[in-house]
Structure formats: structure tokens, C-alpha cells
């Protein structure tokens, strides 16, 4: 069978997980198109902590790091037939200290007004066979979709260096039904998240300083080991942040439809459960992709 070109719109956890699973199926060439990408911080981007990278082969081969990334460092990696434009760079083009390097396309930064813009030759030079819509909250505004059942649930957090050593979450607070209390320590030095709020329909990107104080006080009261029994003044703050969860009435939308002459598979609207449900939702989306393209999904 001829290769199929698939565009995934959205580089949040839903889009990246779906792209990952699609890349494991022979004959699928995947490109991720997104306005916001890992490393960006924006009110529209609900997965600012998600990340993915490829590493060229360099002088550190044989080291623990190189062994960890052995396949990615290979001059003939598994993904060479998945990503568009894969090529090995000539030795004379390499900077000193590099034995070899490869070049390919995996992400494109773009702002789409309509979902079918992803098939335009100015965005994707090759013919697109299918589009996967993982636009999250912006599915409410994207032309051709405009799902008005998707609304933001504003979440405000405080990221600190203090280590709680655990994850704690309670069902409510005395400060109102739109506020929450949770402490989540991230792995690998990612800090600790203190939250939070769940303000449906609120698009406000600005940090509320009064809410921030309430968040910190609740967290320290619930988890005293954060500050060794002292007050919020002992919190080592990395940043204050606001994110918008993509909440959809009726739950996550995972379905396929024909828009114009193009098959589209939707995977968006997981709300605050994006990370924990990303793999299962992506598996269902991949099955729909394979069904639309008349292929067998092998996950």
C-alpha cells in the first residue's frame, strides 16, 4: 500500500500522544501542526509541560546518555520512514565535534483559521490523506469544527521548588465551589504544583494575586512538610500560572467525519483529565484513522 500523509493539529498531550501511536504504524507519515508547541507558555495551551525531542548522533556515543537515546542517535533510526524529508547531512556541513547528523520535518508552527487549511499546499506540500483534530479548547473556534460545547475551565496554580514528596487532592474548599486544593510533585525536578481553581467559562489569562495567596495557604495547611511547618513565606516560587482546561459537555469527542473531501478524526475535550486519558483516547483515535483509511490498526 502507498504511504498515507496524516496531519495532526495540536501539540498538546492529546496531539503528541496520538502522533506517537500513529508513527508506530508502517506506511503512515506524520506531521504535527500547531500554534503552540512544547516549551511555549500561553493561555490557550493546556499542556505546557509536555515535551518531545530528537537528538542527533554526536561525540557522546557510548555514554549513559547516548545509550538511553540509542535509537534516536542512530544514523538509520526507526522513524526515518515516518517523518517527512528525512536525510543524512553531509560530513562537511557538520559543526566540529559532531560525527553525523540527520534532518527531517516533524513539527510545523502555523495558525489555522479552518481545519481544511491543514491540507493546503502552502502548509503541507504533500497531499494530505487525513487530518487529526487535537485542538483542545480551540476546537470551539476552529472553522469547520466550531464546537460550542467546548468551554474553558480556568485553572490557576503556583509552581514551587519545595518538595512535598507526595500528591494530595481534596474534593473542595471553604473558599467557594470554583476553588480547589491539591499538591502535585512532578518527577525529575519538575517542581511542585499548588492549585488551584476550576472556573468554567472564564478566559481571563491574568493571575489573581488574592487567589494565589489562598492557594498557597491551603496547600501549606494541608501539606505542612512543604515548608517544614512554617508559613507560605518559605515557599520557593518558580512561577504563577494560568491554564485553561478544554472541557466539553458530554465528554471527550473521539469520532471521525468527512469535511469536504477530507477525512477528519477528532480527539479533543478531555478537560482536566488530559494526561491520564491521553493514551487511551489516542488509541481510539488511531483505530478511527485506520478505519477511515481502510487499514488495520496495530497498537
UniProtKB/TrEMBL annotation:
What EC designation does it have? 1.4.3.3
Q: What class of enzyme is it?
A: oxidoreductase
What superkingdom does the record give?
Eukaryota
Q: For this UniProt record, give its keywords in alphabetical order, as a comma-separated list.
A: Oxidoreductase
Q: What is this protein called?
A: D-amino acid oxidase
Give the originating organism: Aspergillus melleus
Amino acid at each position: 500500500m502507498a504511504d498515507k500523509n496524516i496531519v495532526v493539529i495540536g501539540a498538546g498531550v492529546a496531539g503528541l500522544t496520538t502522533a506517537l501511536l500513529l508513527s508506530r504504524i508502517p506506511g503512515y507519515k506524520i506531521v504535527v501542526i500547531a500554534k503552540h508547541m512544547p516549551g511555549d507558555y500561553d493561555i490557550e495551551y493546556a499542556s505546557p509541560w509536555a515535551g518531545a525531542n530528537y537528538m542527533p548522533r554526536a561525540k557522546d556515543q557510548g555514554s549513559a546518555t547516548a545509550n538511553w537515546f540509542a535509537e534516536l542517535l542512530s544514523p538509520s533510526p526507526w522513524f526515518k520512514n515516518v517523518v517527512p524529508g528525512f536525510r543524512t547531512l553531509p560530513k562537511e556541513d557538520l559543526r566540529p565535534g559532531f560525527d553525523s547528523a540527520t534532518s527531517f520535518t516533524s513539527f510545523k508552527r502555523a495558525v489555522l483559521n479552518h481545519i481544511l487549511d491543514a491540507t493546503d499546499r502552502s502548509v503541507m506540500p504533500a497531499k494530505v490523506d487525513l487530518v487529526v483534530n487535537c485542538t483542545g479548547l480551540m476546537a470551539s473556534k476552529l472553522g469547520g469544527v466550531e464546537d460550542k460545547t467546548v468551554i474553558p475551565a480556568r485553572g490557576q496554580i503556583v509552581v514551587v521548588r519545595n518538595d512535598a514528596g507526595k500528591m494530595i487532592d481534596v474534593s473542595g474548599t471553604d473558599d467557594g465551589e470554583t476553588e480547589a486544593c491539591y499538591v502535585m510533585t512532578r518527577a525529575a525536578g519538575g517542581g511542585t504544583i499548588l492549585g488551584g481553581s476550576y472556573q468554567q467559562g472564564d478566559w481571563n489569562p491574568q493571575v489573581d494575586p488574592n487567589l494565589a495567596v489562598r492557594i498557597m495557604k491551603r496547600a501549606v495547611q494541608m501539606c505542612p512538610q512543604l515548608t517544614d511547618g512554617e508559613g507560605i513565606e518559605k515557599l520557593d516560587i518558580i512561577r504563577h500560572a494560568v491554564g485553561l482546561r478544554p472541557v466539553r459537555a458530554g465528554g471527550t469527542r473521539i469520532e471521525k467525519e468527512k469535511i469536504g473531501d477530507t477525512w477528519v478524526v477528532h480527539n479533543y475535550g478531555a478537560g482536566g483529565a488530559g494526561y491520564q486519558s491521553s493514551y487511551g483516547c489516542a488509541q481510539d483515535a488511531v483505530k478511527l484513522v485506520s478505519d477511515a483509511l481502510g487499514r488495520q490498526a496495530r497498537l
